[in-house]
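re: ur question from yesterday

yeah so i grabbed the chain u mentioned. its 160 aa long if i counted rite. heres the sequnce exactly as i have it in my notes:
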Amino acid sequence: MALSSVIRSRLETQGFVGLTDTTLAEVEPWLRLSPALCTVLIGVSTVLASVVMLWVMAAIAVMGTLLPFHPFDIIYNAGIRFLVGTGPLPHNGAPRRFACGLAAVWLAATALAFESGAMTLGYILGGVLTAMGALVATTHFCIPSTLYCAIFGQPTKRRG
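ran it thru and got these structure tokens back, copy pasting raw so excuse formatting
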């Protein structure tokens, strides 16, 4: 499996550094799973103006910030990988965890906007977050991870 230098760079910006090309190429498609599931659920939550779903997604994002993996990674690591014969996902680096933290705050702001009756603001916040998630899920380009790297520098820690 070949991994383009652009995709490798985008994944390294998210904190997936020190991995061999073979390892990264094997899991690269599956590193889209959590962002894709989040994007769909955030999009549905926004369309429905579902405050409860937005708070649930905010809690999941907080877990993605505090844990070395995103909760939705368990779907792949505990199940899908055994069906497709691939290795486990690497732990999330600081930039990707930072992105989850930013998403948690954004989701809270979106939920609060809907709760307070600021429907237009809620739809704008939710729509922009959904678009940002779709960008990560489809291209691996993560705006919050890029922001993290601009502030704190590119991750260089060797990983297994």
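noticed a couple things. Residues 5-152 form one domain. also The chain has one domain: 5-152.
anyway ttyl
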